Amino acid sequence: DQQVKQNSPSLSVQEGRISILNCDYTNSMFDYFLWYKKYPAEGPTFLISISSIKDKNEDGRFTVFLNKSAKHLSLHIVPSQPGDSAVYFCAATFQGAQKLVFGQGTRLTINP
Amino acid sequence: DTEVTQTPKHLVMGMTNKKSLKCEQHMGHRAMYWYKQKAKKPPELMFVYSYEKLSINESVPSRFSPECPNSSLLNLHLHALQPEDSALYLCASSQGDRLPFGYTFGSGTRLTVV
């Protein structure tokens, strides 16, 4: 039972353009969502998060949008840079859960 | 200090060996976690320690034995592992009651069982 899904295993974007990574979830109890970036052989690095009381959160080049009715969130990176090439994981949790549930990840490649 | 430090970075062990993974944080976080990540898969939770007490064991085989000696340290003792246990083992910590704020991962230990 995969509660958090990232249906695109990979995404290729030209440098300077917008990268949009998508994530869907099934568990209505989730009320906090996070995006992590991961390079090979390293641990996930926190990027940005959003609480279910909001529908948008922005931090520099990164914006996360949450559509609760559709149980969908997306991460926008603009402009995309070569250093953004990595695997991006969406994760979800709720207060008291004590754990993050991760999606399968999307490998983002930024082409010069 | 905003890091979670894991040692060793790489470990190769035989199926009859006993080894330990170590994790340390000095952020005052009161919850610490072990995750396991296989190639091309997402991290999967193994154990949670909250205020130095084991609060979650995700039905992990007994050949993995966690230990939390104090609020800054988390160990994972390994014994009689199988080749399929080869994976990246990630430690994480968070502020505990205010989960998931500050949820921070270490760089991981790449474990190979031969």
List the helices and strands and how they pair.
The complex is a heterodimer of chains A (112) and B (114).
Chain A: E1 4-5, E2 10-14, E3 19-25, E4 32-38, E5 45-51, E6 56-59, E7 62-67, E8 72-77, E9 86-93, E10 101-102, E11 106-111
Parallel strand pairs in A: 2-11
Antiparallel strand pairs in A: 1-3, 3-8, 4-5, 4-9, 6-7, 7-8, 9-10, 9-11
Chain B: E1 4-7, E2 10-13, E3 18-25, E4 31-37, E5 44-50, E6 53-57, E7 64-70, E8 73-79, E9 87-94, E10 104-105, E11 109-113
Describe this structure in words.
The complex is a heterodimer of chains A (112) and B (114). Chain A is mainly beta and 112 residues long. Chain A has no helices and 11 strands. Chain B is an all-beta fold and 114 residues long. Chain B has no helices and 11 strands. In chain B, strands 2, 4, 5, 6, 9, 10 and 11 form a 7-stranded mixed β-sheet that branches. Chain B is globular. At the A-B interface, strand 4 and strand 5 of A face strand 5, strand 9 and strand 10 of B.
Keywords:
heterodimer, A: 112 residues, mainly beta, six-stranded mixed sheet, 11 strands, B: 114 residues, seven-stranded mixed sheet
